[in-house]
Amino acid sequence: MLKVQLTRDLRKNILRGHPWVYREAIKTDKSAKQACLCRVVDRKGKDVAWGLFSPQGPLALRILSTASKPPNSAFYQKRLQAAWKLREPLRTDQTNAFRLINGEGDGLPGLVCDVYDQVAVLQFDGDSCFEFWDQEFVAEWLLNQKGIQSVYCKPRRSDSREGQTFGQPLSESPLQIKENGVQFVVDVVNGQKTGFFLDQRDNRAYLQTISRDKWVLNLFCYTGGFSLYAGLGGAKQVTSVDLSEPALAMADEAWRLNGLEKDKHQTIGQDVFKFIESQSDPFQIVMVDPPSMTHSEKTKGQATRSYIDLFSKAAQLVEKGHHLVLSSCSSHITFQDFFEIIDESLSKARRRGQILRVSGQGFDHPFPHACRELRYLKFVDLILTD
């Protein structure tokens, strides 16, 4: 078995629960060319943990266990069962879509699984995690859980691999799911990520509570998650803007499925920045939930400037005394960064705000207490007072 030695004093950090070790902090056999289970030892050669070794990229180790014995199939089954039990409160007749496995947050690093009714969608955080995890083992365990009939191993957008299905074949049509009784249309094969952004569930429900009699603008709406909750909350009019026509078609279909009045929802397939520049009439809620603008520290500065440009322009569309709702899913933008971005955005727009809500991802997206970097989702609702 591969042995990896720490070159920095990270023993305490690992034992506290931090799941990552970067390449500059280890020494190992350079001939190791494949992802594998490894034994992690400290600078004195004493055992510290068992980890998932990655031969590529800056993240060299993902910690699996600090027990004396290496993890085996029973160990992984126990972790999977714990993840299933944690989500038990979500599995109701009103909600049949949730994140079942959230990687490091569930002690299964690099492994993600979202459940959409009878379909479980697996994704892996990079090539090394794809190599390491036994897809058949995980799929078999999932198919033994109540209600799951199909498991789809979905490649990331950058992968050349094709998706693989275990259990019953997938339908060619998009799935219909329920979240808090709201019906959505999800395309797990062609949609973004695993098909839907389950992490915003609680924030969508919040938006419903503030939408009555409001004119609502949802920018980067994707398949209309926030739009539907606004409509069900009694919004006067909802405008959904996104560049993806297939996503907008699913938003329209979901609007119909939920029995909402057709003439109260307008979908616009356009670049968001161009749309903002073309607007002169104000809205009473402007929801801005863009895709991640940075995937590394190197591009964080440019992403920060892009957020400020976007948010300041969006702020100018908000009627005085009403809501600017902002979100970011980038893990490289911290909550502190996000508040600074909001400060700069409102200053640039010559507006001032009163913060009503600060939140993040739902409880089915847990993270280790020692790795707050994995609290990636930021959501802030402001009333613009000036």
Mean pLDDT over all positions: 96
The largest sheet is:
7 strands, mixed
Number of strands: 20
Taking pLDDT < 50 over at least 5 consecutive residues as the criterion, the unreliable ranges are none
Question: Which of globular, elongated, flat, extended, rod-shaped describes the shape?
Answer: globular
Radius of gyration: 22 Å
Topology:
Elements: E1 2-6, H1 11-16, E2 20-22, E3 26-27, E4 36-41, E5 47-53, E6 59-65, H2 73-86, E7 97-102, E8 111-116, E9 119-124, H3 127-132, H4 135-143, E10 150-153, E11 164-167, E12 175-179, E13 182-186, H5 201-209, E14 215-219, H6 225-232, E15 237-242, H7 245-257, E16 265-269, H8 272-278, E17 283-288, H9 300-315, E18 318-328, H10 335-349, E19 353-359, E20 378-384
Parallel strand pairs: 1-4, 9-10, 14-15, 14-17, 15-16, 17-18
Antiparallel strand pairs: 1-3, 2-6, 4-5, 5-6, 7-8, 8-9, 10-11, 12-13, 18-20, 19-20
Helix pairs in contact: 5-6, 9-10
